[in-house]
C-alpha cells in the first residue's frame, strides 16, 4: 500500500491537536526518562517555535508534527535542526518517519546544512535516525545529540 503524506503550515486552531499529539506520542518516553510534565509545560513545549511547525498529513488528515529550524552550533557552524518530530502512535511503524526524514534531507541538501536532533535515551525512534545515517555526537542524562553530516545526506 502506497503511503501519501503531505505537510501544511500550523494554524492557531491546531493547538489542541498538537497538545493531544504530544501527550499521546511522548508520554511513555517521558515516563521512562522519569520526566513528569504538567499540562502547562507540555503546552509551553508545543508553543515553542510554534510557527516553525508543520502539520504532517496522511490523506489530508493530521497525524503528526514536524518542527524544523536552522540553528547555530559551535561557533558559526549551522545545522537544520529537527526540534520535534511526532507521529500519532497508531501511525508509527508504517514508514511515515522515513518518508519525513527523506523530505528533511532534501531540504538540508538545498540549504547545504547537516541535520541535527536530540532524542530521549530510551526512545526507540533513535533506531530510525541511525538507519537514516545519523550519528550519536553526544549524550547527557536524558538524551542523545545526533547529527547527519552533509556527505551522508548527499550520498
How would you portray this structure in words?
The chain has helices at 15-32, 39-47, 96-111, 125-131, 150-154; strands at 5-9, 53-58, 61-72, 78-87, 115-120, 135-139, 143-148. The protein is an alpha+beta fold. A seven-stranded mixed sheet has the order 1-2-3-4-5-7-6, with helices on both faces. Helix 1 packs across helix 2 (39-47). It is globular.
Number of strands: 7
The secondary-structure class comes to: alpha+beta
Radius of gyration: 15 Å
Distance N terminus to C terminus?
Answer: 27 Å
The helix fraction, in percent, is: 25-40%
Q: Could you say which overall geometry the principal axes of the C-alpha atoms support?
A: globular
Largest sheet: 7 strands, mixed
Task: Write out key terms for the chains shown.
single chain; 155 residues; alpha+beta; seven-stranded mixed sheet; 5 helices; globular
How does the SSE layout of this entry go?
Elements (H helix, E strand, L loop, with lengths): L4 E5 L5 H18 L6 H9 L5 E6 L2 E12 L5 E10 L8 H16 L3 E6 L4 H7 L3 E5 L3 E6 L1 H5 L1
Parallel strand pairs: 4-5
Antiparallel strand pairs: 1-2, 2-3, 3-4, 5-7, 6-7
Helix pairs in contact: 1-2
Summarize the structure.
The protein has helices at residues 15-32, 39-47, 96-111, 125-131, 150-154; strands spanning 5-9, 53-58, 61-72, 78-87, 115-120, 135-139, 143-148. By secondary structure, the chain is of the alpha+beta class.
Amino acid at each position: 500500500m502506497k503511503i501519501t503524506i503531505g505537510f501544511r503550515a500550523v494554524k492557531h486552531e491546531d493547538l489542541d491537536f498538537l497538545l493531544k499529539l504530544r501527550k499521546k506520542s511522548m508520554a511513555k518516553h517521558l515516563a521512562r526518562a522519569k520526566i513528569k510534565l504538567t499540562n502547562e509545560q507540555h503546552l509551553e513545549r508545543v508553543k515553542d517555535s510554534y510557527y516553525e511547525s508543520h502539520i504532517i498529513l496522511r490523506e489530508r488528515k493530521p497525524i503528526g508534527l514536524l518542527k524544523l529550524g536552522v540553528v547555530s552550533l559551535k561557533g558559526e557552524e549551522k545545522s537544520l535542526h529537527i526540534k520535534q518530530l511526532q507521529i500519532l502512535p497508531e501511525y508509527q511503524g508504517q514508514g511515515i518517519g522515513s518518508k519525513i526524514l527523506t523530505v528533511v534531507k532534501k531540504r538540508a541538501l538545498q540549504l547545504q546544512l547537516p541535520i541535527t536532533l536530540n532524542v530521549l535515551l530510551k526512545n526507540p525512534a533513535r533506531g530510525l535516525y541511525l538507519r537514516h545515517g545519523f550519528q550519536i555526537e553526544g549524550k547527557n542524562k536524558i538524551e542523545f545529540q545526533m547529527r547527519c553530516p552533509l556527505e551522508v545526506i548527499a550520498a
